[in-house]
From TrEMBL:
UniProt name for this protein: DNA-binding protein
Domain of life the protein comes from: Bacteria
Stored InterPro entries: DNA-bd_dom_put_sf (IPR009061), WH-like_DNA-bd_sf (IPR036388)
Amino acid sequence: MRCEFMSETTLVVQLPKELEKQLRAHYDEMISNAVARVFEDKELYKPMVRMSGLSRWLDVSTTTIQKWTKEGMPTMVIDGVTLYDKRAVTRWLKQYER
């Protein structure tokens, strides 16, 4: 590794090629994971979700969602598509608060 000062505010570090390659691969993986999380998390901010999204948001199984729906959890069905309003679901769940 070699360091040289270009000016008062710049430091140039030359790494061995293999270390540079490993660092680039590591940062590429970090960035890819961060982008994937953004796409996964975007569903968290949607006000309306399907059953699978609600299941992930509440961290319960889709079987539990189906059971709660039968017990009166609010849904909307539009052209055969069942949607859940997260605010309405939250209000419904609050009745079980202790």
